[in-house]
Q: What sequence folds into this?
């Protein structure tokens, strides 16, 4: 089976290509940037909206991970986000119609939920995003539902929660300056800077916010399971990809201090406006995929730290080789 992966050179896309190759798929990698890993059989450079029909005619399924993906910039420049994430995806889907591609797996987001009242994100209960980025993901899910009914393009939309960690083999991982607390706290400790924990009086078990974190390898495995799922299930389907439990901000700090040779220099700050106390994935329906997360918080922290060290060593070697 031949599968095309958009965003194949990115953090999640790279890990997905590796997993698909492990499962025996032939992988075509699409990205605007140079794909640096070796887990593909062919490369289609450029925007996913401009993939050539001759390429799509050779693939059996599309894993659509490529997107413009930050909340803040989506508020400042929503036009770019709607054009890239909604318009570009529609162009890709129309090319699927033309070439007969009938399986489509979409990297959606927990941003589709906005702020659910009880902190548990259940697909049936909450689909009201609070920013343009979230709306681009939700609009694409709706579009996929309509395309399944009208054109027979079957799909799985996977709502990613906070993706973290790195490849267990140390071959790939997240670049520095990611937005989630695991990366920010770890990077501050590596730089011997202080890290501000915002809000310690939330109505949670230790007073700090609770969020759902999922290892990037678990995300890649779920994408592989989704291909199998579409082999026997028609229509458009939406699933949450999270741990289903969540970790508090204080638990994350403690995990960093306990699992790697770093200590977070912690200071406390006030609550930030708009930060809900708890956001956790309801993964009840996700079990239909035959998937559940394997890696816990300690593995997320350890693999992320190992990748930072490997990346630093590579940068040093590159500097030496150019001098």
A:
């Amino acid at each position: 089976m031949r599968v095309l992966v958009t965003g194949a050179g990115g953090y999640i896309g790279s890990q997905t290509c590796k997993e698909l190759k492990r499962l025996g798929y032939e992988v075509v990698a699409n990205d605007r940037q140079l794909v640096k890993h070796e887990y593909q059989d062919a490369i289609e450079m450029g925007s996913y909206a401009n993939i050539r029909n001759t390429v799509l005619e050779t693939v059996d399924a599309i894993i659509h991970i490529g997107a413009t993906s930050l909340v803040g910039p989506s508020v400042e420049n929503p036009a770019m986000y709607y054009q890239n994430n909604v318009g570009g995806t529609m162009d890709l889907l129309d090319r699927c119609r033309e070439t007969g591609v009938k399986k489509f797996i979409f990297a959606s987001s927990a941003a589709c939920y906005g702020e659910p009242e009880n902190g548990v994100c259940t697909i049936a209960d909450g689909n009201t995003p609070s920013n343009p980025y979230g709306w681009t993901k939700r609009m694409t899910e709706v579009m996929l539902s309509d395309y399944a009914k009208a054109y027979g393009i079957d799909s799985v939309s996977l709502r990613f929660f906070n993706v973290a960690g790195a490849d267990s083999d140390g071959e790939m991982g997240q670049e520095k300056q990611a937005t989630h607390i695991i990366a920010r706290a770890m990077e501050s400790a590596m730089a011997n800077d202080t890290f501000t924990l915002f809000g310690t009086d939330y109505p949670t078990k230790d007073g700090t916010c609770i969020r759902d974190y999922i290892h990037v390898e678990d995300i890649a495995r779920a994408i592989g399971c989704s291909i199998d799922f579409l082999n026997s299930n028609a229509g458009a389907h939406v699933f949450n990809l999270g741990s289903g439990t969540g970790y508090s901000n204080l638990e994350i700090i403690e995990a960093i201090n306990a699992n790697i040779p770093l200590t977070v220099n912690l200071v406390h700050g006030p609550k930030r406006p708009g930060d809900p106390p708890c956001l956790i994935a309801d993964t009840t329906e996700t079990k239909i995929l035959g998937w559940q997360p394997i890696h816990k918080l300690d593995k997320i922290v350890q693999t992320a730290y190992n990748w930072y060290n490997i990346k630093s060593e590579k940068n040093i070697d590159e500097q030496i080789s150019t001098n």
Confidence is low (pLDDT under 50) at residues 316-323. The first helix runs from residue 11 to 22. Residues 2-165+213-241 form a domain with the Rossmann fold fold (CATH 3.40.50.720).
